[in-house]
Amino acid sequence: MIEFLVEVNGQIYEISELVKSVSYTDKLNDGCSKLEFSYIDDDLRIQNGSVVRFKYNGANIFYGYVFKHEQNKAKEITVTAYDQLRYCKAKDTIVVKNDTIDSLVRKMCNYFGLKAGTLTSTGYKLPVSVQDDKTWLDIIYNAVSDTLMNTGKWYCLRDEFGSIAVRDLEELQLDLVLGDESLAYEYEYQKSIDDNFYNQIKIVSDNESTGKRDAYITKDSGSIAKYGLLQYFEVLDKNYNPSQAKAKADALLKLYNREVETLELDCLGDTKVRAGTSFFGQIEDINLNRRLIVRSVTHKFIPVHTMSLEVMI
Amino acid sequence: MINEIKTVIQNYLNNAKLCRFMVGTVTSDGIKVSDKLTIPNELIVGNLKKNLSVGRKVRLLQNHGGQQFYILEVIDE
After folding, report:
1. What average pLDDT does this structure show over A99-117?
2. Residues of A engaging B, defined by a Cβ cutoff of 8 Å
3. Could you tell me if B63 and A233 are in contact, meaning their C-beta atoms sit under 8 angstroms apart?
4. Which of A97, A128, A130 sits opposite B66 (nearest CB)?
């Protein structure tokens, strides 16, 4: 069932029998994944930097490094370990030119001496930019959102059992149904227009040919009649020509003119579910019957494997 | 608590890249500001861009966000 190995001072120990609790947390394009576990033992003192490897029912779950350990009088030792992406929180100054997501990730791995795995080639050349004093993770997440805006393709950066990978979310679709009649035992669903909901977009941009600022307004009258007028306002910092500014306003209206839905699910565990994977959600009470992407997931393995998911709707 | 807030604000400001002056030297592929950072020509704007020669020192104004650099003046030797 559980296979838990740690390496301390060059010695490998198997602590599968000693482990009292294990939880694994993974977020989509938001830092490294995290393994927290505790065990009771007199002799084995785990150290920061120790390598941890965890498998569950033969599935590779986590390979990473200890960053924190605590202990108490009852000899219970609590440990937090992160994967390789933890090292990418370091800041640097780079110029992005003729780069793609995968070439940036390759540079990052070379620079920090990290092991790279499958780096899907994205094909989209990022716009030239200066990334001054930014963390590598922020630089790459920036590149991911630029690529998403311009190609509609969504990628994620993650560590897969000790090697860093770039994946297209489309290839992470699982053959898995979660909902009323499959695995889920609790859910919480919310629909709101309190945050990030706008039905009128006003954009202001400097216009070099007329020599003054122009305003562009686009709105959805039906939505305004229903919810009241909620306006979004932005001053663009780059020079957009009128048609680009209009297109941007239309795109923003499309993005914001819908009720924000959030869904959290508690299910029996499936080791294939990581942040970025998608499954088929079926919950009759809220009329849900479609594919959903996992934004974040926490797996708990002892005594029973369960998982809590936050998904995007 | 107050220290955490200070750290958050400091990190935010640092990440937002406020407007500021910079001094650089013209090279063949951009303007060199430091050993690590040569600003590519694509991000440089201003009338003075046309008649720059390699080796001249210039004063730049970085926009909010740090993705455009306006040449304010060529610094006299």
Report:
1. 96
2. 92-95, 97, 128-130, 132-134, 138, 237-238
3. no
4. A130
Which of A23-32, A145-154, A162-171, A302-311 shows the lowest per-residue confidence on average (mean pLDDT)?
A: A145-154
DSSP states along B28-59: TTEEE-SSS-EEEGGGEESGGGTT--TT-EEE
Q: Are the beta carbons of B37 and A97 separated by less than 8 Å?
A: no
CA A48 to chain centre: 25
Q: Does the predicted interface ipTM exceed a cut of 0.90?
A: no
The string of pLDDT tens digits covering residues A220-257 is: 999 999 999 999 998 886 667 788 888 889 988 988 99
Cα atoms in the 13 Å half-sphere on the side-chain side of A46: 32
Separation in Å, CA of A223 to nearest CA in chain B: 33
- Flag whether pLDDT at B5 surpasses 90: yes
pTM: 0.87
**How far is the alpha carbon of A94 from chain B, nearest alpha carbon, in Å?**
7
Contact assignment for B63 to A134 by CB distance below 8 Å: no
Find out whether A84 and A35 touch, Cβ atoms under 8 Å: no
Cβ contact B63–A95 (<8 Å): no
